[in-house]
Amino acid sequence: MRIGDRSVLSLWLGLIVLANGLLLVSLLLPLTPLIGLLVLTSLCAVSLVFRQTRAALSLIKSSLSAVHALGILMLAIGIASLMTRPVTWFDTGLYHYQSIQWLANYGTVPGIALLLSNLGFTSSWFALAAPFNASILDARVSAVTNGFVVYLASLHLWISLRRCIKHQAHLSDWFAIVILSLLFLFLLGLNSLSEILVSPSPDIPCMVLTDVVAWFILVSASSSGHSDTAYSLISSTNHLTPHRIDSSENGNTALIALFLAAGTVTIKLIALPLLLVTGLFYLISSRSHLSLVFKGGLTAGLLLLPLLSCSIVTSGCPLFPSTSICFALPWLPTPEKLQVVAEHTHHPTTWSTPTSASQTWFTTLQQWFTSNPSRRFMPALLGVSFGCSAALAGNLLFGRRSMQAARSAQIWLIAVGISGIVFLLRLSPFFRFMIAYILISPALMIALLLNSKSNKKLLEAGLRHFSSSKTLLLLKPLSLSLMLVGLVAFNLTRHYDRLLLPAPIEPVETFQRQVNDVTYFFPRQGLCWATELPCTMAISTDIQLREPTLGIGSGFVRSGADK
């Protein structure tokens, strides 16, 4: 595997491990900045024990020039300036920032779903954001985690583009360029997605990681189909020595894909079809070898354990808002409340108001698509995605074998896209949930066309002419700096108060109310934003504190339930 792919992959894996490590710690401790720093330091210390980690860091350091470092820094500053806009996404005001506040102040709180069902939607992404949201920052950095996701995706896009300019691109590089460019086009071009982008919403990392898993499946195919030259650190001589990558190095790629998919599920449960397909990919890659199957199951199970445990603590159901499995705990919502949650999140006939009791699923879906102008282009995009999937499948079955590079990987990518679309059409067909799956097959088709011999020669000739310009080479660092200065100036000229920190999430006007021994704040306009805890809308009359002497940090139970 090439150094650029390793770097991108390592950053994603580290982010997933850190997020789930924090989520696990939240079962015992509040996620304060100090706790977050201790968890991060501990994980880094453990990773540095391994010689391979130290060698990889030395390799990355030696491969970075001053120009590369400048470009990485400029990219980070440019994205940071774009993320300074105020957070306005509805769900952030409803429960995202509230969830982060609860984790930062109290950790995982038993029965918090009784206050507001959305607070029971466990996500490792909220745990990752919690240590950054200390009271001293005045709710100004809630979007920092999504900003880092945009940074990682931009860095990935940059690495892939450089390979194309240097005529070193594989199919996986073309796929990364196409799918990340399309994703950025939608994120920046559509007002609704642009609004979600500047927020702590787990939708953004879920979108990007879904496509990263698809990319990595192609990387594994490219790695096995190419004899790449890599460099390793020889400790005795402290020099970098080239060597050929042995095919056995690719034996764990399927396990890495499984780990990424399981990590995506811990961020948002809509990634379950991704985990299912990637799990099948791993089983087939392991050739049903018992020890490898056990290794994969143990890896995915351990990664999902914090999510399942925290969900049980907050709601009584390990996959909440799914109510198919629940435990009779004192804070389990009533059956009526669970039914309401199910209808509002994943029942296929509650996307819109049925016109008749006998209305079919297809009619309901059609009515839902036409009920809002912003949804009317979705059938066209779905048609393009299904059409590309059919064309790709036809090429795999009937096309010339010379045109079927990474054949098995293409099958898995088609399976990821189709399964995700079908799953969400049945449960929750929101565009922000489906976009990552919709783009996979069209991006793969475009990448195959760009990677074909005839088109590749034309592209390489154009890129060679573009990159050979002496004027361009001389102006590269200067141009990058000037563009960055212009970008920052454009964003901050009229908002100089955002130069060091983004705009804060403002608290809202509330009324103080009480149910039994629970005193809470009721927002006048229906959203809590950065209001003092506990803030929620009207709650049921059977809720009470789990341990009144310990306050709201002890959690909540239903009145009369056994504690």
Total beta-strand segments: 6
Mean pLDDT, as a whole number?
Answer: 82
Report the portion of residues in β strands. 5-15%
Strand order of the largest sheet: 1-2
**Radius of gyration over all CA atoms, rounded:** 25 Å
Helix-strand category: mainly alpha
Rough outline: globular
Spatial gap, N to C terminus:
53 Å
Q: Give start-end ranges of low-pLDDT stretches.
A: 225-251, 470-475
Helix content, binned percent:
55-70%
Along the chain, the helix and strand elements come as HHHHHHHHHHEEHHHHHHHHHHEEEE
Number of helices: 20
Can you lay out the helices and strands and say which pair or pack?
Layout lengths: L2 H23 L7 H16 L2 H13 L2 H17 L7 H17 L17 H6 L14 H22 L5 H19 L1 H7 L5 H23 L3 E6 L4 E6 L8 H15 L4 H14 L4 H26 L19 H11 L15 H10 L7 H21 L8 H21 L3 H21 L1 H15 L2 H23 L17 E6 L2 E6 L19 E3 L10 E3 L5
Summarize this structure briefly.
The chain is mainly alpha-helical.
Structural summary, described in words:
The chain has helices at 3-25, 33-48, 51-63, 66-82, 90-106, 124-129, 144-165, 171-189, 191-197, 203-225, 253-267, 272-285, 290-315, 335-345, 361-370, 378-398, 407-427, 431-451, 453-467, 470-492; strands spanning 229-234, 239-244, 510-515, 518-523, 543-545, 556-558. With 563 residues, the chain is mainly α. Residues 225-251 and 470-475 have low confidence and may be disordered. It contains 20 helices and 6 strands. Among the domains are: 3-227 and 247-346 and 447-464, no CATH class; 510-558, no CATH class. The protein is globular.
